[in-house]
Design goal:
Number of strands of chain A: 10
Distance between the termini of chain A: 22 Å
CATH superfamily of the largest domain in chain A: Pseudouridine synthase I, catalytic domain, C-terminal subdomain
Oligomer: homodimer
CATH class of the largest domain in chain A: Alpha Beta
Number of domains of chain A: 2
Low-confidence stretches of chain A: none
Radius of gyration of chain A: 19 Å
Largest sheet of chain A: 10 strands, mixed
Strand content of chain A: 25-35%
């Protein structure tokens, strides 16, 4: 028996998220089915992050146990021939039997893309959240450091989640204007913003609520230095709206 | 009667190109139908470039005549509410009655995206051509200047096209590694290359054949300084393969 770790890129547009559910197409189910076709085995495929519908991944990590004799690094090539082209195994490797993609994780990195433009974009429509109002990027940047460090992030957690502690540590956060494949689209003043956040773990919808709160800061509904009191309040209603799923990317899982 | 100029962005993935054809969904038809719904008029919608199926546009230009009283700049907003989200009118404006999107054009700018990686990308699958073999980008760059200027580009023209002259002038060409929304995908050594080409006009498939020829140079099948003799030969079989449609973007049309 071997433990195989997969690093997976996916375009989440056509899926109801990672996690298996009845009567809905999920990434977990599609990858499990490809493994079954390849090995003849029914496996338990554990993902590091249960990404929501529409959320993308550059480096989701999942692992499964197998008796198959296929060399570990060949799983990626073999599975890619069986998977639809919006799910790609970037890497496959053998890991210790006690490796668990979720519980062994020391942290994660996400990014969130915001397309700030008066007009929508055909090419970014499922890849970045559209914000019409011009954003004050400097104000957004000023608020970033308040998120750094260890805090009770209850104000940035979707209600209804029942996790024991809402204390998390954010180890890195940045916001930059990036050029994009649609650079040169001729739309005056439009820009693509990339928010990157790393931390030891994230509450349900936490990155999307932070993104939504930064959008509030950028559009003047909140001030940069409102952030500390919002965090301290632990009151979800004080933070911004949950930004849409399709702007979110799971970039990397740290072990 | 007024002449309205539209600047259009589209994701070409789900269309059989710009130009109307029987029994196939095209961008021209979809935009015409939206104009009909808005104005009640059957119009002739002329596009600057007849992009092929799968080819994208950041700034396709089209124009039509109308008796509608809708203010010119409002067409974009009104049409966007009627169009699918993979076609977006970025701008609408009134132009002189003698403006013709194709015949008035002084030139165009295209770009071609190449994803050079051992593994495919889920997020770039319809946005960039995948090249597995590692590309020598410096060799590709060295060959660029040979394309500049006025040449008979018969060697870079799809056979079967019946245009009077195959002499064209390329006014600008560059190749750069760009960061992409999938930067940080963890795939060692993978890169996204952006080829930009401007010129007074392009023969059928010319940009895709130039891209394919540069890929040959990058992978060692041709040398940088083979380009002048290939141009001089006017022999299509001496140039590289036509690179796939989905890496091509019509960036801008100059008037």
């Amino acid at each position: 028996m071997r433990n195989i770790k997969l690093t997976i890129e996916y375009d989440g547009t056509n899926y109801h998220g990672w996690q298996s559910q009845d009567n809905a197409l999920t990434i977990q189910d599609v990858v499990k089915k490809a493994i079954h076709t390849l090995t003849g085995e029914e496996c338990v495929l554990t993902g590091a992050s249960r990404t929501d519908g529409g959320v993308h991944a550059l480096g989701q990590v999942a692992n499964f146990l197998t008796n198959s004799k296929i060399p570990a690094d060949k799983f990626s090539f073999a599975l890619n021939t069986l998977l639809p082209d919006d799910i790609v195994i970037k890497k496959s490797e053998e890991v210790d039997m006690d490796f668990h993609s979720r519980f062994s994780s020391r942290g994660k990195k996400y990014k969130y893309l915001i397309y700030n433009s008066r007009k929508p974009s055909a090419l970014l429509r499922n890849r970045a959240a559209l914000v019409h109002l011009p954003l004050d990027v400097e104000a957004m940047k000023k608020s970033l450091t308040y998120f750094l460090g260890t805090h009770d992030f209850s104000a940035f957690r979707a209600s209804g989640s029942d996790i024991k502690t809402s204390v998390r540590t954010i180890t890195g956060i940045s916001l930059n204007e990036i050029s994009s494949m649609i650079a040169g689209d001729g739309e005056n003043g439009s820009k693509l913003l990339e928010l990157e956040i790393s931390g030891d773990g994230f509450l349900y919808n936490m990155v999307r609520i932070i993104a939504g709160t930064l959008i509030y800061v950028g559009s003047g509904k909140l001030k940069s230095d409102d952030i500390p009191s919002i965090i301290e309040s632990r009151d979800r209603s004080r933070a911004g709206k949950t930004a849409p799923a399709h702007g979110l990317y799971l970039v990397e899982v740290y072990y």
